[in-house]
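Encode chain A's predicted structure.
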Amino acid sequence: MDKKLFRSILLIITYAVLLVMVLARLDVIGGVLGTLLAVFKPLIIGFCLAFILNRPCQFFYRLYSRGLDKTPARGAARPLAVLTAYLALILLIVALFSFVLPKLVESIQTFVLNLGGYITNAQNSINQLLEYLHLDIEQLDLSSLNTTLEGVLKNALNILSNLGPRLVEFTTGLVSILVTGVLALVFSIYMLSGRDKLLGQCRRLLKAYVPAKVAGPISDVVSLTAATFTKFVTGQCIEACILGSLCSLGMLFIQPDYAPLIGVTVGASALIPVAGAYIGAIVSAILLLMVSPLKAFIFVIFLIILQQVEGNVIYPRVVGTSLGLPGIWVLAAVTVGGSLLGLVGVLISVPIASVIYTLLRRDIHKRLGPPDQA
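Encoded structure for chain A:
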């Protein structure tokens, strides 16, 4: 038998045996993976934090490097950039809790206080509709639902109002969470501070233990993955901020009391690819429907127009072109990612699919040439 054929058959048999073993012991493998994730949690969180702050840090580094280039303090550009990036993050969090959160709580309080009237109006509207349609159905009574919802929302509001002190007390009591946070912070600072050195060490490690014909493609895939995730995270965050801000401004003319609540809801849901726009629109429309069906209808029309303007005019000019992933790929990636990993899978599935799509397109073009030459 040909050695090459024998090697291929042996490889297929080995792969089949390993696949059967993995499928037979998925519970054990899941437990091992869970343990590994728990052990490496500080490093994973620190890596994610460093990845998010890498672009701001690079911006400040270039800024400080130009200013300190011909001075004795030029070596301080990197530490100053890292410090500035973290200070900017802290200021953003402080601003969020100082300005946005109080307005959000105020909107929720207004909604809870008026909930009884909203439910009564909804009950009357439904009964009038049933009477108009001559349906032989008993008059709808939502009083029990009214009482239940008021109690639930008031309890939730009390918890939200006391969230700060309780959160501090709870966090103080959990030493493991505190240690994890500190380790993640320290690890992220070290990664950002020694970014160039770490990249150089990784390249040397790759060259030392991986053949050159394999090391090159691995390096290209890693670079493509990093660039894709950076572009995706930056684009989603900017899009969420723009959409949430514009939605809040528009709500000032539709229902001013709920402008912060609707703006935060739409902006936060915009972070979720594909489904986020629908989730934010549906939740916000339901809230406004209890206030006024007409205002809910106006809001839906306004949000549809706003999303079209933001997606086709504002977003391309501010962020640039998208990931270049066809719509069917995005939908498939979100569906599969959500089924496997839930919300985390939905968030990371699109950039992963974009990397796979780009690699496949490159390989096909390499084998067959561009589409016009195929």
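The two ends are 37 Å apart (CA to CA).
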